[in-house]
Amino acid sequence: MLFRSTRVVGWTVLGRVAAVAWLLHAAANAAIWYVSSHGNDALSGASWASAKRTVGAAVAGANQGDEIWVAAGTYTETIRNRVVTVGGVEVAVDVALYGGFAGGESSRHERDWETRHTVLDGGLNGAVLTIRSNAGQATRVDGFHVTNGTTGISVFGAAATIANNTIRGNRGPGIACHNYRILGVSPPNVEFAVITGNTIVDNAAGNGGGIAVTGGKEINILPSSAPLIAHNLIARNTASQNGGGIGCWGHASPIIANNRIIANSATLYETGYDGDASVGVWLVGGGGVFATQNDMGGQPIQFAISAPTIVNNLIAANGALIGGGIALVDYPFLPLVPPDKNPPPVVTNNTIAVNSGSGIFSGNNFPVLRNNLVAFNTWGLEEDQASLAAVSFNNICGNQVQGKTWNYKGGPD
Predict the structure, then answer these.
(1) What's the rounded Cα separation, in Å, for the pair 328 and 271?
(2) What whole-number distance in Å separates Cα of residue 237 and Cα of residue 254?
(3) β-bridge pairing 181-184 and 189-191
């Protein structure tokens, strides 16, 4: 079931009006809350002198449109966004969290998150930050070091903005993004998460080491989940199964643009794999990027669209058994289905180089591969017998196995 979204979709008119009125009133009275490692949660949080000690205490008191300024220091806690009930409707309170302050600033522009590290440490006690219940892009996490969680940041049935953070050393995905914000069903009115300007490194998960994007079967009549993942460094993350850097499952079609996706890996070797057989549950693919119509358990999601747009990225030095750079699997072309219900993945204008494994693997899929440089990988372009890749205007060169040039494997050379 989509987390809490059924209540949002099923709002009564009176409940919706009451919720909107409450949010507008709260936003008109927006305030700044202050948090310091030298603060005290018994204080008001209304100034640096009366700062609270924990981020969670400030979140619990904040209203729609408020900002929370957090001074440099380490905060060992797990944080969940505030959710209130208005007119019988659960409403996420959109609050912006900002790190990187010294502790005396009067303007947000005076902060420096690159030198004043504001560390949120989950103590391996769950996700460090959880954002849920239809929160919108005005819910913002900006300028933090997020570490030591079972997930770094979990965006569940919401559309938060995650910007300018270092997300490192989590024992689960750096960011897990499931479904999105739903404002209306007929016609669809939805909002997606924005993940930009982050450094996402050294996280280790079963699936989706750096970022895991999932779209469940409960939203397959609505648009495919399409968070914007742009201008991030995604490096040295590992997945024991699929998607070392970024993994996409089910009804998920993120826009992956202008990132550096470097030195990620999908590491577990599954014996008995036959490259011409069904890719199966445990493909172990996509050292850099992985996408499939299946759920994480390997079961197909009917009517799901798995069509990421992968554009203008550097995808280099990643590794996996299948698709060291990119693996696109188990999303077949359906000739009787309208094109807007079965669009292809698009991979264009990328540099895909020096990956261990094929630069791009297409298995039971029909991607558009255009204007890419695919060079110095183990193989260049690898396709299984069910692939219908549309390949044009790429430079596929210098891919070698034991000194033998192998730019194409399973497709025309």
Answers:
(1) 21
(2) 19
(3) antiparallel
Is residue 23 scored above 70 in pLDDT? Answer: no
Backbone angles phi, psi at 121, to 5 degrees: -110, 115
Evaluated on CA atoms 106, 108, 114, 117, the torsion sign reads positive
CA atoms within 13 A on the CB side of 412: 5
Distances (CA, A) of 99 to 195, 205, 330: 16, 26, 41
Bridge partner residues of 181 (DSSP): 191
Q: In which band, very low, low, confident or very high, does the pLDDT at 124 lie, cut at 50, 70 and 90?
A: very high
Least confident of 55-59, 276-280, 310-314, 368-372: 276-280
Q: Please, what is the average pLDDT of the chain?
A: 90
Given a cut of 90, whether residue 89 has pLDDT beyond it is no
The token duo for 217 is 């079967």
pLDDT over 50 (residue 315):
yes
Q: What is the pLDDT of residue 280?
A: 47
Dig out the tokens for 198 from the structure: 């982050």
- Find the DSSP H helices in 89-158: none
Residue type for 375, please?
A
Can you give 14-52 as a three-state secondary structure string?
HHHHHHHHHHHHHHHCCCEEEECCCCCCCCCCCCCCCCE
As to burial, measured by CB atoms within 10 angstroms (0-12 exposed, 13-18 middle, 19+ buried), residue 86 is: middle
pLDDT-derived band of residue 88, with 50, 70 and 90 as boundaries? confident
Share of the chain above pLDDT 70, in %: 88
Say if residue 9 is exposed, middle or buried (CB neighbours under 10 Å; 0-12, 13-18, 19+): middle
**What DSSP designation does 271 have?**
T
Going by the DSSP 8-state scheme, the letter that residue 345 receives in this structure is P
Coil/strand/helix, residue 57: helix
Under 8 Å CB-to-CB from 222, ≥6 apart: which residues? Answer: 182, 185, 188, 190
CA distances (Å), origin 183, targets 16, 333, 378: 10, 30, 46
Residues 59 and 66: their CA atoms lie apart, in Å, by 9
**Nearest-angstrom CA–CA distance, 65 and 62:** 8
CA dihedral (23, 24, 25, 26) positive or negative: positive
* Mean pLDDT score, 137-146: 98
Largest Cα–Cα separation, the chain: 70
Compute how many other C-beta atoms are within 10 angstroms of the C-beta atom of residue 110.
11
Query: Are 292 and 330 contacting, i.e. CB atoms less than 8 angstroms apart?
Result: yes
Asked whether the predicted pLDDT for residue 276 surpasses 50, the reply is no
